[in-house]
What we know:
Blueprint (H helix, E strand, L loop, with lengths): L1 H16 L15 H25 L40 E4 L14 H9 L6 E4 L2
Antiparallel strand pairs: 1-2
Bound molecules: FE2/S2 (inorganic) cluster (FES).
Amino acid sequence: MQPFAYIFKEALPVYLTNLPIPDSLGGWFRLGFKDFLALVPPTAAVAGLTYMSYLAFCPKGRCGAGSCDQKGNLVNPSILKKSDKVVDSVDVEDIAEKAVFCRCWRSKNWPYCDGSHNGHNKREGDNVGPLIISKK
Ligand code: FES
């Protein structure tokens, strides 16, 4: 624990005190190249911590590369988006022996599975698969 105590009680306060942070807005314009260079590591540390916090509250698969977006939180990203509700009806009597229905909402052959769930699962770390209805 002694190294941590030294870092947080002595080294870090001395380092922060010696940073060339101006007291006024005009002071920023009087900083030299070396002063800006000295501000790069703490700025990068703050940016990194901010980004890590952003990732913690915005897990993969729910956010785009730039920011959280409404589309990233949707179950249905592209099927019949002009409809208020996507409803499909299939008569069991019309199924010959077996029908494979999509449950991942990525199929290009909706409502049937076309294997798109494989790519989705690989990309997002998900585990969705089709609903298989068979007469046997
Ligand atoms: S394509 Fe959606 S479950 Fe297979």
